[in-house]
Model the fold of this input.
Amino acid sequence: MTQKKTAGKAFESQNYILMDSDFHFISQFVHDRVGIVLNAEKRTMVHTRLVRRLRALNLKTFKEYCDLLASDTKDHELPYLINAITTNLTRFFREQHHFDHLQNDVLVPFVRQMNASMSGHKHLRIWSAGCSTGEEPYSIAMTLCEAIPNIAQYDARILATDVDTNVIAHGKLGRYKEKNEITHDLVKKYCHVYDDQSIEMNESLKNLVHFKPLNLISDWPIQGKFHAIFCRNVVIYFDKKTQMILFDRMADAMVDGGWLYIGHSETLHQICDDRFRLIGRTIYQKVK
Ligand SMILES: C[S@@+](CC[C@H](N)C(=O)[O-])C[C@H]1O[C@@H](n2cnc3c(N)ncnc32)[C@H](O)[C@@H]1O
Done:
């Protein structure tokens, strides 16, 4: 049975008590490593998600777990902690207006320009940063296939990254159980639907999307510049300073005039508005 102590000093569940000192240690550790802020409201969530890990490790207390993290110089435990803490909510074509903009205002003019330039180098790079289980980068891939019928003649790649290694593995598999995903026409068009109503992305989509584990607050081993970056519903978990550094680095990683899509509750106002101009609802263009 789960119990929340009324004094607010500790949370108890099946004999595991999350003391203030343990919660503060874990919060600081997570913030330092991946930028995620775990404030007091997240305490129950931290407790619930980590109790499973403590059991798997046969640890008796959260203090023992904190000691393990403190002595984990080779970062063996870090992925387990991060995978437990991240929130991965996502869906296909979340915020449809972003995909409409990508198709009509970015890809269609891009193709026109490519056809006119005769340069022959049809190079297109898009980054889904904080891609979760893959629904976002696959939605980008479907949009590309719709906007560019001869996509095979392009050097087009979608980089899909996330700090959570479990979601990266899921994205690579490209298989989803949710029945309601197939109500979207494009999902029906570009996926194989199994008898049990689960779906799998077609190979043509899988070939466009390259999944890699990557921590946004660490180094980015990335070559070349992106024409567009989707970084949606990721920085809501970061503090303002981390957001400022992140979007500044993203501007550096984009071509001039590149596009940035952020989450519906996020903004660049007073964060990075010297480098991006607001063009539409949570859609920005790099200006310098
Ligand atoms: C709520 S999901 C958003 C997924 C997708 N972008 C969308 O909008 O549907 C947030 C994702 O950000 C990832 N994330 C959190 N901190 C991160 C970091 N420091 N580096 C990379 N990804 C991170 C989480 O693992 C999670 O999968």
